[in-house]
Amino acid sequence: MFAFEVALAAAPLVIAVYAYLGYPATLWLIAAGRRKTAPEVGESWPSVTITVPVYNAASNIRGTLERLLEVDYPREQLQLLVISDASTDGTDEIVKEYHSRGVELLTLPVRKGKTTAENAAVSVARGELIVNVDGTVLVPRESLKPLVRVFDDPTIGVASSRDVSVSEAGNDVVRAESQYVGYEMWVRDLETRVGSIVGASGCFYAIRRCVHESPLRADLSWDFASVLVARQQGYRSVSVPAAVCLIPRTAQLGTEMTRKVRTMARGLNTLFHLRSLMNPFKYGLFALMLTSHKLLRWLPYLLAPIALVALGLLATKSAIALGILGVIGLGVVAGTLGLRRPGLTTLKPIALAGFMVAAFSAGMMAWRAAIRQKRMATWDPTPRAELQG
Q1: Burial class (CB in 10 A: 0-12, 13-18, 19+), 214
Q2: Which CATH number covers residue 115?
Q3: Suppose 152 and one of 42, 98, 348, 371 were both cysteines; which one would form an S-S bond, judging by CB atoms 3.0 to 4.6 Å apart?
Q4: Residues 194-232 pLDDT 10s
């Protein structure tokens, strides 16, 4: 019984260590044995439709459009399309001001969410490639061409940006998030060298029209599903380091936690919906990568409550277990204080504890939503600082 309790208590940690350390190490070993090959580069540029799904984005849509109109790409090959998910704050009127500059607007009569907006965009998109851009990020003018250029390789179905998290100086909560984003980009680079990434960035990614043509269920995420659908069609997906996307991070832990719950719950729904891609007998290494990168990263959140109960039982028999439980308890108290009193996050230990509590709380709530089959289709814009550039 003691050994069983130890196994239950340690399971989330063991799985997390593999998912965050063992898996990248395995990728590195595989990639080290493969040569980098430079694909042939075409002379012409394919037609591209940039889609910007928005809901009540009046506060930032003007800046977003100004920046996208400056991207370095042949104008005759570029369509800029805003899909308004039944916005009510004047977003549509602002977008119409840019009609003379070539910006098109598709307004959905009923609010149904980002995925429905992306589904609807295909019917009016004219590009061979569809590039999705989040309305709150900054895409440097030189980032589009590298993202598009990789499609000269006919085996590629999806290309994802290199996200760079931009945070306030001295904010340890947001700095922790920024470091995680950097780690994620490193893993995606390794996956690209091995063969294919298993998830694209929702902020800035490109997809072949043929991969995007079949509509996706409203509560699923196109950025994640695009890679899976592409694999079903025989394509691979890649991360493009030169296609930089700047993402401002909110300094409010509560806001970030709400975003994480929605993102992870939709990710879980997408994974379960396309679970056949985790079959290694059919999809080989890709299936193992998908399981390692996604499912095994999310599984510790599901197992955490069971592990805590097991640790509590162990604490009645072992001083070591009691000490570990005490440290966890102090961390939860400190993190909860950080969530409730943002001013305390200027203290680094409290900021990091708050980040961990927010992450685990979001993970457990996401699993709860996924198990209850709660479909999170609509979204509210995450408040972010306006980026200049």
Answers
A1: exposed
A2: 3.90.550.10
A3: 42
A4: 999 999 988 899 999 999 999 999 889 999 999 999 999
